[in-house]
Amino acid sequence: MTETITIDENALGQRLINHRREFHRYPESAWCEFFTTSRIAGLLQSLGYELHFSDAIIHRDTIMGRDEAEVAVARERAMGWGADANFMAEMDGITGVGAVLDTGRPGPVVALRFDIDAVEVRESQEDAHRPRFLGFASLQPGVTHACGHDAHTAIGLGVAETLAANRDALCGKIKLLFQPAEEGCRAGKAVAQSGWLDDVDYLFAAHIGMNVPSGTLVCDPQHFLCSSKFDLHFSGKAAHAGIEPNAGCNALAAACTAVTQMLAIPRHRDGMTRVNVGQFHAGNGRNVIPAKAVLMGETRGENRTLNSYMYQQVEQIARAAAQMHGVALEIKTQGEAIGLENDPTLVELLAQLGLNSGFSQIVLEKDFGASEDAGYLVERVQAKGGKAIYCLIGSDLAAGHHSGDFDIDESRMLPAVKLFLNAISELQTHPV
Amino acid sequence: MTETITIDENALGQRLINHRREFHRYPESAWCEFFTTSRIAGLLQSLGYELHFSDAIIHRDTIMGRDEAEVAVARERAMGWGADANFMAEMDGITGVGAVLDTGRPGPVVALRFDIDAVEVRESQEDAHRPRFLGFASLQPGVTHACGHDAHTAIGLGVAETLAANRDALCGKIKLLFQPAEEGCRAGKAVAQSGWLDDVDYLFAAHIGMNVPSGTLVCDPQHFLCSSKFDLHFSGKAAHAGIEPNAGCNALAAACTAVTQMLAIPRHRDGMTRVNVGQFHAGNGRNVIPAKAVLMGETRGENRTLNSYMYQQVEQIARAAAQMHGVALEIKTQGEAIGLENDPTLVELLAQLGLNSGFSQIVLEKDFGASEDAGYLVERVQAKGGKAIYCLIGSDLAAGHHSGDFDIDESRMLPAVKLFLNAISELQTHPV
Amino acid sequence: MTETITIDENALGQRLINHRREFHRYPESAWCEFFTTSRIAGLLQSLGYELHFSDAIIHRDTIMGRDEAEVAVARERAMGWGADANFMAEMDGITGVGAVLDTGRPGPVVALRFDIDAVEVRESQEDAHRPRFLGFASLQPGVTHACGHDAHTAIGLGVAETLAANRDALCGKIKLLFQPAEEGCRAGKAVAQSGWLDDVDYLFAAHIGMNVPSGTLVCDPQHFLCSSKFDLHFSGKAAHAGIEPNAGCNALAAACTAVTQMLAIPRHRDGMTRVNVGQFHAGNGRNVIPAKAVLMGETRGENRTLNSYMYQQVEQIARAAAQMHGVALEIKTQGEAIGLENDPTLVELLAQLGLNSGFSQIVLEKDFGASEDAGYLVERVQAKGGKAIYCLIGSDLAAGHHSGDFDIDESRMLPAVKLFLNAISELQTHPV
Amino acid sequence: MTETITIDENALGQRLINHRREFHRYPESAWCEFFTTSRIAGLLQSLGYELHFSDAIIHRDTIMGRDEAEVAVARERAMGWGADANFMAEMDGITGVGAVLDTGRPGPVVALRFDIDAVEVRESQEDAHRPRFLGFASLQPGVTHACGHDAHTAIGLGVAETLAANRDALCGKIKLLFQPAEEGCRAGKAVAQSGWLDDVDYLFAAHIGMNVPSGTLVCDPQHFLCSSKFDLHFSGKAAHAGIEPNAGCNALAAACTAVTQMLAIPRHRDGMTRVNVGQFHAGNGRNVIPAKAVLMGETRGENRTLNSYMYQQVEQIARAAAQMHGVALEIKTQGEAIGLENDPTLVELLAQLGLNSGFSQIVLEKDFGASEDAGYLVERVQAKGGKAIYCLIGSDLAAGHHSGDFDIDESRMLPAVKLFLNAISELQTHPV
């Protein structure tokens, strides 16, 4: 750590925990983070950051997996929780906020990305569950921060506060992105396409937990899976199943055909592929040829070519199944993840800074084995000539991610903040 | 018509309308008719009828299409509406009531059956809808008497009142069955198997409307379809679709296989057959191999053999689909209808009595083209040596059955009551 | 019977048997009747008939179910059996012959149609099989006259001989059509479209047997089924199933999808429909993604609309199944039958002439329950203002049609000849 | 090479070519190698080997993929080609021969295995195809030695001749196995289970070609795929598709269901799996519900567990598809391959001897990527305490294996013979 940035570690550590617990109480799922965004924006504004909302940070046409009805309910709830009306207006329906600290001095543009959404999981009601016995459990039944994004948000605010307090010791520009809708990989592509990161020289992102124990920093996680999430909406024609079965166009039957055939997409020579239909909902009455059917599914591949192969087959099959039964088809992309490759110089940088930032063990590579829409941000920054890294912040967990009993080791937020601050400090004087 | 029974037609006509409107306000769907039953029982008790509930009139093991969760909610609601606690206790969870008027004098046992359940249809909110502008619209959103069973109930009470008032002029025994759960053909079989009708010499049942105009009586409707209603519950094993797809047992895939194959049951040499899967619900998460899938379907046949052929194929296919995917299967019968054949002597009787009962036109045969669980009652009575008839009471309708705009011509209830009274009167002196 | 035509019944009866047995020895399946046509043509030419071949009687583009490779083999075989080279040249690859006897005198144009093809059935090798113990069994293994068209051909020649011998007693014009490829309903449409029958006033056709006993004439058979016969050829791309399964386009899988879905074409409100896939052949090697698959199937309907409904669904499904698997599809129509409705005046005529022609019992209506491409000829003649009839000539059978043990009662050919002669005679003087 | 064995290389080289060309002329497919076996046996007998046939070398109950009808035809053909009647009797229907040279002196038991069957491929008729222009092309249309087993046989005879000529210089026992039916992996398991190799200390086997160039020896090929080959025979009930479709049990439909579902067997977490249905044959008539259907398929897996997973799913699916359609199912295993792991000490031995045996390049590992039933022999020998090796003898090829243009570089047989002789010689003095 350079001497330019000073921290009161005890005070910061406590504030991180306070922040995290507050966000834990008010969990909001993807594209619904109105209260969360409002709270973040209020804090950042008071610290002197310039704020960017809505189309400035999210390319509206690229948004995936956003349900207008859910969003409407979420806005009401956020207002009820006390969201700021001005920020609500600035968001214009699109959650998330980008904050800029421009020192006015020449220097690199460093960005950090923190994802802020909760998941649709019912939080544990057990007394042993810490959020419950310490009184910061979720106030929204069926939604909770079971992935750790409350901690990510807190880390982001910790970084923001320290940078603001050390403003005079900094040069260049700092951009903090509080990103919505990471769950389901729904926002990453839209953030990338907004262009908000196009001037960035260095991008940092991280995830807490992920089967990495407390004290360990994984600098270069491997094998981010490519994936496409999709909904298939089949629309046919209802008819009385007894009186004139020939008059219907059976959306349910078309969807069944699509499922069976999608599961039979040929395996690929070049490696691992996957396909799943996780949900199927169709029909209203027992004696009516169903006019509507919805499938929710996903493909995966161990690289982008393999996932594309799978997804193109899904499209081909779904279209043909619709034609076969004379029904219409709408394919709605709900999320997408591409690979993610860290820049080696940043991997090396974090590996050097880790022990000084409060980690006790530095691991270079570890299988990630899941999907992350940060891949889009990393790809965009790299395409524009910048460098990017996504690392894992170890934390012992009470239960696995997306479990109702999930809980983190709150003491692991501080090292993450310090790591980021050290990296910013280092890059200002020694660009890599 | 004998002279033994006297009626004040004006008063009776108004009471029929009052009864019908009250039941219209408190609609309860199949197996949920607690308030309805309580109200009927209270009126009949005050008239001196002996009442039979629960197992006495319904063979519990033969009940179909009853959802415990819905029933629990319905009990609460009925209590809120003011259902009588004693009757609730007597029902013991099973709706419907049988009432007996025993004259103590030798004579035939005549039974009349009235079905009392409403349907899950949203009632019209238009000002032109009479229940709305006259203030007797449904008090339960999403449920309404759109099939006319409120009128059937009122007719039954009209008959009950008149008979009680003329008790001294009667001989033999009168049994009035206020049957639950006719919609979906869910209760008929259980009523038949209870044996409550086994001593009946003559059974009468009727439906109002059914595309028969006001003033017309159809004595012998034809072609009651045989049908089986079923739910298929597939239970497999969830697994992460990306990480270990081989570890799951895919209930959704099994259900898709079942659907596709059920729709391909071979046509039958001997006539019309049908099969439909009207609803399909499966899965929770996009990236989870679905562990649960539910199909709701039905078969039909123009006779009992043809429906049995279809239903046996459904069972064979569903079982094999489950085995194919290594999932468990539970088949829940939700309703059943068999044919219905009237006794010619009763057809002749009604044809003779119709014009004197207030009908202006008598039609012998008309296609019914739907299903009725009264078929089980008719079959049972005939099997025990009695005679039975199911007729249609004409009524101009505001809209078709099961439409939210459905409404009847209330003036057509009175002729139905008179027809039944005349028939009872006639049979006491001239058995057929 | 008028006195204009004289017959030596004994001699004619024996010649009919001789003709029938010769044709029985040389059976040729649909579109392969080169020797048969050559023999018929030789006999008719010697009787002074004007002969028409090939495009004159068959509209080449409308031909269905003709296999060039089989035809090539058949031509060779026919030459080996001694077919006439000149007639072979005239046929130009298309079998069948039309013969005209123009009296030069004014009068009606009467046509008679006789179908001449055998079926691909293995003839019984049992000693009790008459063709075998009398020495006229099929000389071509796997093909035999198991439908009675050898008798039809003999009847046609008997009519031809008698008419030629009585030429001076006739007026108008007689046209005799010896039609190929009735089996599978492959030629009828092409004959109709050739226009050869367009000047015909009266058309007669008949079938021997058909569950009608010896001695009985059925004048007006009912319910000729509409049907479409089709082959579906799926062409994909082979690939090594182990090494690169993703590189193939699986024609076998596409065909399986098509079959399953075709069997699930919804039943039709308006009546009886059928669909069958009778044959499926695909693939060469066990470890190769199959590049080729052929399905052979048929649809039926109790009227033309219903058969069209079924066939259009087949096409829609097959095309979609091909697209789904990325394979090409060729649909080859192999045969077609439409309904057939006799003209009442001809029904009446035959009913009057039957007893005088050697029949002992006249039946008006009987269910046909099968398909006949004579329907196209009847429709064409009727469309052009003529009248037509198709009747059944009773014959006790040794076994059912298309059985290897099939054999007719040869004595029943003579009454058929006499019936046709009587009809011609009657129509020349008393047109109906 | 030790000095104990002496060879006239020129003479031996020419004899190998002569042998190979003779066997090339008389190709016989799997389980049909009667003439081949007879010729081999005659030569070995004249060299003084003790011969073992039939049950002595093949466990009859474990035989896979043997068609009795084909075998019957093959026996006739072999007799026509001049097979020895005594050997035919000894074979008792089971092809292949084991030969033993017992020196009577103590020493190791060394076995060599040569596979002798041809493949069902049509040999090239091009003038440029060497077997054609040199006059040793296949005498059996549709069958040819397109895999190089004619060369394997010749190599075996070359080894046999040299060993017999050097008998006095040898110790221990030599066993030469001329194995039938390697193609499709049909015989290996049955040979292993016969126990004929149970006393073997060292087993050698090899394949010529396999994309290894002339002059190269591959000592330790890797990744032998596990595979199961199977035929599924569905037997239902025929019925007229038009008249009574409900009366059939549709074997074709059951097979289609099985195919679609087999292709959808879930991918496996642990690695590469494959499934293919390479052939589908069903039905006879277009208008008959098909009573018979046959599928020919295979599964693969990159290890035994994965192949078992696939094959068990195939069985489960096929059984359920049969039940679903009410048809019977017979599963006939047609071939099986397990992995194959060489013993390192023998790999080292061959690597040392290669250059002295006429090879110019020694390669240790190369992907095999296919299946070999030698795996069963290797496993058996290893299980009984012996050591085994399977190597690749490089040969430039005119075209790939199983192509009609396939031809080998005949000069590469001699180094193979020398390699085996050197190995035997070495092992007699220096066991590994």
Mean pLDDT of chain A: 95
Poorly predicted runs of chain A: none
Q: CATH class of the largest domain in chain A, anyone?
A: Alpha Beta
Largest interface: A-B, 42 and 42 residues
Spatially, the strands of the biggest sheet of chain A line up as 1-2-4-3-5-12-6-11
Rg calc of chain A: 23 Å
Series of secondary-structure elements of chain A, N-terminal to C-terminal: HHEHHEEHHEHEEEHEEHEHEHEH
Report the oligomer. homotetramer
Per CATH, the architecture of the largest domain in chain A is 3-Layer(aba) Sandwich
- Structural class call of chain A reads alpha/beta
Structure description:
The structure is a homotetramer of 432-residue chains. Chain A is α/β, with parallel strands linked by helices. Chain A folds into two domains: 9-221 and 341-429, Zn peptidases (Aminopeptidase), CATH 3.40.630; 226-336, Alpha-Beta Plaits. The first copy, chain A, has twelve helices and twelve strands. In chain A, strands 1-2-4-3-5-12-6-11 form an eight-stranded mixed β-sheet, with helices on both faces. A four-stranded antiparallel β-sheet of chain A has the order 8-9-7-10. The radius of gyration of chain A is 23 Å and the shape is globular. The mean pLDDT of chain A is 95. Strand 9 (273-282) of chain C pairs antiparallel with strand 9 (273-282) of chain D, so a sheet runs across the interface.
